[in-house]
Amino acid sequence: MNEAGSAPAQQVHETLMALLHSDFAAVATTATWTSAVEQGQTLTGSDLGTCAVQGRAAYGTTP
User: Fold this and answer.
1) pTM for this one?
2) 36: closest CA among 24, 47, 25, 44?
3) CB within 8 Å of 46: residues ≥ 6 apart
4) Burial 16-27, CB ≥16 within 10 A → b, else e
5) What is the C-alpha to C-alpha distance for residues 19 and 45, in angstroms, rounded to an integer?
6) Which residue among 17, 43, 47, 61 has its CA within the 20 to 30 Å range from the CA of 23?
7) Residues 11, 26, 29, CA angle at the centre, nearest 5°?
């Protein structure tokens, strides 16, 4: 909680994972990550624009 408000821990976690996957990192399951490391492969990420379009399609807009 801060001056801007508060959010449940799960919402913060899910939002941060979406953000990380969009530009800064690739988010994957432990099994997928382990497999990529063992095979020397790079995990693919997405981009913020694509994530925004997919989010809108999945959840619509909020008032």
Assistant:
1) 0.43
2) 44
3) 21, 22
4) eebeebbeeeeb
5) 10
6) 61
7) 70
Alpha helices by DSSP H, 1-63: 9-19, 30-39, 48-59
45's CB contacts (< 8 A; 6+ apart) are 21, 22, 23, 24, 25, 26, 27
Confidence of residue 18 (pLDDT cuts 50, 70, 90): confident
Pairwise CA distance, residues 48 & 5, whole Å? 24
Write the pLDDT tens digit of every residue in 27-48. Answer: 788 999 899 999 999 888 767 6
